[in-house]
TrEMBL record:
Record protein name field: Uncharacterized protein
Amino acid sequence: MPTKKGFQRTLIGSMDEIEIATPGGFYLGTAQGYNVDLSRLDRVAARITTGLFFHEFGKPLEPEFKVLAYSVDGFSNADQRTKTLIYDTLTRITSGKPRVFGDGVFTYWLDGARECDTTSLWVLQFYQKIYFLCSIASNHED
């Protein structure tokens, strides 16, 4: 848990009244909440994926490869075609073997990674509800 004063000030300073609604759209009122910096969380998910690569394969990721991570919540305003693509990709990857830690606190899946081919897609899931779609691919553009 972060203990730095700057983190506390930032968190408290970002709190505001937010509207609460059911998944069906019924208004429930307001509550204290804050906006999440998704780009910061994406960077954390990318670092986690880099560590998971080492965990899975026992070797560091080669320098010519990079990890990109995207919060699935970040696609909420995307067009329908993009949402469908993301949903289909998540469904395909999560149909594979899950790696579960902490009784569902953290779960991840990987798709396509082999020791000789580090290009892969990963899904990270936190608390059985927060998803990140991550990719490992070459830095080199062909």
